Structure to design on (904 residues):
């Protein structure tokens, strides 16, 4: 991978893919390369670097839409919309800390291709839910578009959904349109201390079943909580956190209701906006397991939220595991002691029992090749996945093998 | 109205009796309907201008039956048109003369309510409203609320990615489903997603949602449930111009407020509705806005005051806040009855469904008035103002020779106008047969070819709902051909390091 193709516009991207197709070359599609270490180590000949396709091309705050070239830095977009009191409601996580890269990197194209999300997933959805339109070059070397620049559209297949979470294996995106939403006027967080896994998930389930409109529900066992700087860690022990966002009078009201609801579970405390922001950023980016202090394999488990306690307990029994629960129990980050297969057999067995899927986010290349990064699929879904891949990229030009062998 | 559908396959029609017998062996009893009189109710959907008797109607009851009958149709090369409640306004369930009409109405059970995970697992024939009714006792509801919610089914909602008045704040169907069981045309049963928030692998659920019955037949859907907001209040605001109303909408959103619903009506629509429902709508205004905010009482009171303030700044002529639940429902009764109200003042009406960037509304309304005058057909507009989804209703009389055709032409002009100003052909009703031939106004050959290749990945023989969505049918082999260019870097000046 010594060669780098650096297209300047969509036409260049098309030419590059056509050239690779004709020459039987495989391309690694990257923006900033901030999530390059995720996925199976792919066998590629050249890098197709899309970071030169940069710049916001349309931003209409009152229409709630923004279009940008795929290589536009995410940070640039977030700053631009913040200046208008808006945000990307899907709260894209920054993989920098856990992968050992610089923080604050990443492009909008990468954020969408990885279907990034954050703690607000439980309320606002993931990148896929805010992805309105795209222009891209398929692995066939053809430019195509899908969707539009309006927030409500059902014209034709929703290819944006398919691109979200495809990790660059179907097409190289050149321009995207996303939905932007108002940023909340304020936020506060309620903390409940000292809960075990079962009680914590019960508390989160109760909060989510209330009309408090919780926009973040996470549980940090003692180990993870101790690595959150400042007052959240407190005197030690586990911390269960609930975020309330919105207009000032509304947050004030909901805080009272939620605090009363949580009282039977344990001691309740409230933290203000600044501490709340820092806490949820740490949870979003999984900084308790940041690479700077933790080299263990890191797994991302997705399950039915109320099954989080049961799955967490199964993982706990594996020994030497540490975890952090987000999405009211539906997302579990697990750091496991290093082993031959990064714990894949045991983790996948536990997830199969609870329902959901597991992704190996951090591990050395050899482990990622051996253990399968993305959850193995059953035969019918695997065959369908392969046909979908081939409909966009029949010769395997784009990120071949990054998700599964041949995909 | 006429629309070209795929030429019926004479060889299939010649085997009709044998096919019906084979289907009866799969779905016993009254599940197979072959008598013309009994098939009549299935000859059209909500777009009644198009009618076609199917070859046979099948009403399976189990996933296994669906699997077996699709495998049979696949082996025999028989086309299949899936149908929910048949409320589509775009002809998505229009039968084919040589096709099996696959009705999913008997899949009408709610399989599981899981309040801890805030999901319901339902069969596709369950109506949209029935889901909300089934969970109401626990304080939950299912957010997408298409106006046909009393009749339309979850399976149809998934196929069409249905919206509703609340989708600005709560999303469309695609944002409110987590999993499904899907039967492919080969008879293979595939499970996608589940109760967890993000599925692994490609987002197949995302692509099946809104695919208009062209990719597979859904036999189970897992939908998200939301907690009902504590309360809701609505403001009814009249404006002297659509520009003022549009500005008000923009400023509400600009103030960081995403209302639960935000609906606009133009003068012809207001008048039609008021005569019908007597909701107390002002008649001397050019545009009427209903803004509803929901949430805890404290939030609702605060936002209502802000919305009122913004409305006044935008030169509102009238402004009424609902003071009771009855009054709020009365405000909505008018809007919800807009279609039948228009149906009362005209022998027939044709409902369009484009989306535009909202800022272009005054320009679009002006052009629409010009088109309306030149075609000699009245147009009333209802508008999901928050998300720019416009429903022009063209008033016509099908008994007047040529008026139907002129209506169709005017409708096409309006949708092209939507695309011209940066919008799209359909916001929530789907392409179906209705807008099929307009797809090239929005998409290039290459755009459509890529969509059809995806169709091939699910249904290589093109047997599921052919003649819908795509203006031209291509064979998958032809679409799959690669056109490889010369093997040199065709842009010598491309930086390459």
């Amino acid at each position: 991978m010594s060669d780098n193709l650096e297209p300047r516009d969509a036409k260049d991207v098309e030419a590059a893919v056509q050239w690779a197709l004709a020459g039987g070359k495989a391309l690694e599609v990257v923006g900033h390369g901030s999530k390059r270490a995720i996925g199976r180590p792919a066998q590629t000949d050249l890098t197709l670097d899309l970071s030169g396709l940069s710049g916001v091309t349309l931003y209409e705050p009152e229409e709630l839409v923004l279009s940008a070239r795929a290589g536009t830095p995410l940070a640039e977009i977030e700053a631009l919309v913040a200046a208008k009191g808006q945000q990307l409601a899907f709260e894209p996580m920054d993989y920098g800390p856990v992968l050992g890269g610089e923080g604050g990197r990443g492009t909008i194209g990468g954020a969408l291709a990885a279907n990034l999300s954050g703690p607000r997933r439980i309320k606002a959805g993931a990148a896929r839910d805010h992805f309105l339109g795209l222009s891209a070059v398929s692995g066939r070397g053809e430019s195509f578009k899908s969707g539009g620049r309006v927030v409500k559209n059902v014209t034709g297949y929703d290819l944006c959904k398919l691109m979200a979470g495809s990790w660059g294996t179907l097409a190289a995106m050149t321009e995207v349109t996303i939905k932007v939403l108002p940023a909340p006027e304020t936020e506060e967080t309620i903390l409940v201390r000292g809960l075990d896994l079962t009680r914590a998930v019960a508390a989160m389930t109760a909060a989510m079943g209330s009309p408090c409109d919780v926009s973040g529900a996470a549980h940090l066992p003692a180990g993870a909580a101790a690595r959150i700087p400042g007052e959240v860690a407190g005197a030690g022990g586990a911390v269960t956190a609930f975020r309330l966002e919105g207009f000032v009078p509304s947050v004030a009201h909901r805080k009272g209701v939620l605090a009363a609801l949580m009282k039977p579970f344990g001691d309740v405390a409230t933290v203000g906006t600044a501490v709340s922001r820092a806490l949820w950023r740490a949870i979003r980016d999984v900084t308790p397991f940041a690479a700077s202090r933790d080299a263990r394999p890191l797994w991302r488990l997705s399950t039915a939220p109320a099954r989080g306690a049961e799955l967490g307990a199964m993982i706990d029994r594996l020994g030497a595991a540490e975890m952090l629960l987000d999405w009211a129990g539906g997302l579990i980050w697990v750091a496991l002691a290093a082993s031959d297969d990064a714990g894949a057999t045991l983790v996948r067995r536990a997830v199969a029992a609870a329902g959901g899927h597991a992704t190996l986010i951090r591990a050395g290349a050899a482990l990622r090749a051996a253990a399968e990064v993305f959850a193995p699929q059953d035969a019918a879904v695997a065959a369908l996945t392969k046909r979908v891949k081939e409909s966009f990229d029949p010769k395997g030009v784009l990120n071949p093998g990054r998700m599964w062998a041949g995909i | 109205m006429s629309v070209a559908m795929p030429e019926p396959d004479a060889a299939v029609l010649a085997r009709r009796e044998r096919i019906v017998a084979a289907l009866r062996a799969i779905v016993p009893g009254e599940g197979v309907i072959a008598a013309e009189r009994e098939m009549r109710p299935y000859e059209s959907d909500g777009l009644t201008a198009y009618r076609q008797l199917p070859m046979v109607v099948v009403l399976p009851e189990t996933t296994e039956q669906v699997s077996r009958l699709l495998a049979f149709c696949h082996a025999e090369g028989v086309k299949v048109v899936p149908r929910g409640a048949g409320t589509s306004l775009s002809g998505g369930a229009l039968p084919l003369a040589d096709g099996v009409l696959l009705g999913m109405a008997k899949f009408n059970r709610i399989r599981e309510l899981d309040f801890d995970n805030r999901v319901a697992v339902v069969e596709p024939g369950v109506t949209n409203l029935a889901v909300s009714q089934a969970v109401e006792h626990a304080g939950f509801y299912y957010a997408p609320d298409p106006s046909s919610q009393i009749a339309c089914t979850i399976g149809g909602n998934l196929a069409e990615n249905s919206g509703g008045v609340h989708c600005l704040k709560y999303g469309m169907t695609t944002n409110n489903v987590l999993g499904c069981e899907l039967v492919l045309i080969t008879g293979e049963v595939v499970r996608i997603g589940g109760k967890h928030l993000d599925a692994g692998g490609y987002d197949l659920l995302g692509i099946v949602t809104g695919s208009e019955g062209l990719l597979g037949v859904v036999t189970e859907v897992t939908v998200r449930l939301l907690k009902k907001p504590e309360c809701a209040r609505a403001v009814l605001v009249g404006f002297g111009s659509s520009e003022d109303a549009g500005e008000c909408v923009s400023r509400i959103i600009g103030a960081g407020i995403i209302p639960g619903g935000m609906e606009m009506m133009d003068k012809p629509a207001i008048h039609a509705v008021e005569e019908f429902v007597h909701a107390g709508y002002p008649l001397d205004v050019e545009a009427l806005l209903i803004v509803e905010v929901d949430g805890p009482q404290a939030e609702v009171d605060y936002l209502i005051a802000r919305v009122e303030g913004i409305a006044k700044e935008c030169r509102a002529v009238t402004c009424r806040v609902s003071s009771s639940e009855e009054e709020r429902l009365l405000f909505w009764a008018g809007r919800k009855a807009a279609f039948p109200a228009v149906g009362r003042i005209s022998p027939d009406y044709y409902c369009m469904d484009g989306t535009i960037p909202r800022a272009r509304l005054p320009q679009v309304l002006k052009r629409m008035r010009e088109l309306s005058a030149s075609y000699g057909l009245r147009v009333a507009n209802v508008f999901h103002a928050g998300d720019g989804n416009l429903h022009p209703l063209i008033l016509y009389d099908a008994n007047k020779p040529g008026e139907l055709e002129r209506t169709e032409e005017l409708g096409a002009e309006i949708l092209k106008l939507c695309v011209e100003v940066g919008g799209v052909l359909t916001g929530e009703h789907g392409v179906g047969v209705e807008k099929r031939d307009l797809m090239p106004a929005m998409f290039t050959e290459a755009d459509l070819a890529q969509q059809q290749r995806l169709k091939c990945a699910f249904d290589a023989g093109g047997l599921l709902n052919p003649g819908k969505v795509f203006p031209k049918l291509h064979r998958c082999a032809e679409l799959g051909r690669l056109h490889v260019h010369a093997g040199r870097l065709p842009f010598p000046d491309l930086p390459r390091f």
